[in-house]
Amino acid sequence: MAIQCPISSLRTPRARASILTCPPRLIRGNETELLEMVLPLIQTSCILLDMSGVQAIDAAGVGTLAVLRRTAKEAGTTLSLINPTRRTREILQLFGLDSILLCNAAA
Questions:
Q1: CA-to-CA distance for 78 and 85, rounded, in angstroms?
Q2: pLDDT for 84-99, tens place per residue?
Q3: Cα angle for residues 63, 78, 15 (degrees, 5° grid)
Q4: What is the DSSP letter of 102?
Q5: How many C-beta atoms lie closer than 10 Å to residue 94's C-beta?
Q6: Cβ–Cβ < 8 Å for 23, 5
Q7: Where do the H-state alpha helices sit in the chain?
Q8: pTM of the entire structure?
């Protein structure tokens, strides 16, 4: 059963940044929702992705975050993760992505 969880967005046009809330399950099969919401925004604004509600993350979810980071870099914008849960932080550390994706304040 798929869980529907809309990603909320707060756009700040002056700073050209968007704050998005990540769905609670960033796992294989759910990654398309995040991609569809973030990709159009990442071309023109920096993204702060609030990870505080993430309950599950797997390799597919980490891969999705890596794709979004690469896309942001190619577009001249940024993707930063904020408010990660302890488990999310541990997973990112296992993949060596914590220093790349987490905001300094969250690291």
A1: 21
A2: 999 999 999 998 888 8
A3: 145
A4: B
A5: 11
A6: yes
A7: 31-42, 59-75, 86-94, 98-101
A8: 0.80
